[in-house]
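Is this the right way to post structure tokens for a design question? Let me know if I should format differently. Anyway, here goes:
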């Protein structure tokens, strides 16, 4: 797996955006998530956002929707299009 790099700008929209595509993490991250009951090895791949997102949030909460990220991306794209920021 490789780190994801961006060019220009990146909108995180107050959500965890790191999924499965990372090559560095704290030592024992997966083990700690397993001990805390947040992750079950042997099933789905370890997805940081899925494992560490607030379990009280429900799909459809504004902060967790791809639509919110997309609107933020479009706004940043518009506001930075002339490289005056």
């Amino acid at each position: 797996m490789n780190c994801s790099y961006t060019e220009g700008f990146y909108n995180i929209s107050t959500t965890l955006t790191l999924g499965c595509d990372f090559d560095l993490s704290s030592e024992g991250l997966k083990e700690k998530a397993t001990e805390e009951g947040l992750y079950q090895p042997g099933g789905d791949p370890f997805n940081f956002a899925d494992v560490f997102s607030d379990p009280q949030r429900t799909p459809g909460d504004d902060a967790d929707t791809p639509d919110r990220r997309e609107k933020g991306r479009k706004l940043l794209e518009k506001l930075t299009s002339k490289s005056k920021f």
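Format looks fine. Someone answered above. Worth noting: DSSP finds three helices and no strands in the chain. Residues 66-79 form the longest helix (14 residues).
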